[in-house]
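re: ur question from yesterday

yeah so i grabbed the chain u mentioned. its 104 aa long if i counted rite. heres the sequnce exactly as i have it in my notes:
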Amino acid sequence: MAHIEKRDGRKKPFLVGWRDPATKKMRWKSFTHKGKADAYKDEVSTEFRKGTYVDRRPIAVKAYALNWLVRTQPTVSDAAQAYHKRAITKYIVHVKVGTHPKQV
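ran it thru and got these C-alpha cells back, copy pasting raw so excuse formatting
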C-alpha cells in the first residue's frame, strides 16, 4: 500500500510512495500540502484494492502497442500476431501518450 513521508526543508515536503505491482519498483509523488498527499495516497491505495491501478507516467505509443500485443497473445492467432506486430513496428511513430507534438 501507499505511504506518506515528510521531508523538511523542501518545496514539496510531503512524499507519497508506493510499489508498482507490475514492475515492483518504488514510485513517488510529492505534494506541498499534507491534505493533498493524504488524498492521493488514499486514491492509489483504493486502486490497489480494486485492482484498477494503472501507471500514470507517459509511455511511448509503440511500446504500449507492443505490450498490448503480448497480452493478447493467448487469444489471437499467430498469423494475426505477426500481422499486427509488423504494422506496429513499421507504421507507429515513437510518440509518448499524454504529450502533444509541437505544431508547425
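noticed a couple things. The mean pLDDT is 85. also Residues 5 and 15 are 5 Å apart (CA to CA).
anyway ttyl
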